[in-house]
Amino acid sequence: MPSSATGHALTLNRRRFLATSVAGGAALVAVPAFAGWLPAADAKAATNPAAFVDDYKTNVTANQTPETNAVVRILGGFAKVWKTGGAWNTGTPLMPEVLRANMRYCAHITARRTEAEAKQAFITDRQHQSYSVIAGLGPLAELYKAGAKAVTSITSAPDGTPAGKISDSLPADAPAGSAVGAGSHDSELGKVAELVDTVRGPFASSNPAKFAFQYPRPWRMNEDSEVVDTGKKDAFGFPVYESEVIVAPQLLRQRGETPAEDGGFPSGHTNAIHLASLAYAYAVPERFQEMVTTAFDLSHDRIVSGMHSAVDVIGGRVMATALAAATLADPANAELKAAARAQALAYFQEKTGTTADTLYAHAHSAGPDSDPYSDRDANARTVKPKLTYVLTRRGRDTDLTVPKGAEVLLETRQPYLTAAQRREVLRTTALPAGYVLLDGFEQWGRLDLFTAADGYGAFDADVTVTLDAAAGGFGAADSWRNDIRGEGGLTKRGTGTLTLTGHNRYHGGTVVEGGTLVAASANALGQGDVRVTGGALRADKVLRVRGSYVQQGDTRLELLLRKNHGPALEVSGRVVLGGVLSLRLDAERPPVAGTTVPVIEARRLRGQFDRIELNSDTLRAVPVYTTDGLSVRLLKR
Question: Could you tell me which Pfam families the record lists for this protein (predicted)?
Answer without folding.
Answer: PAP2 (PF01569), PATR (PF12951)
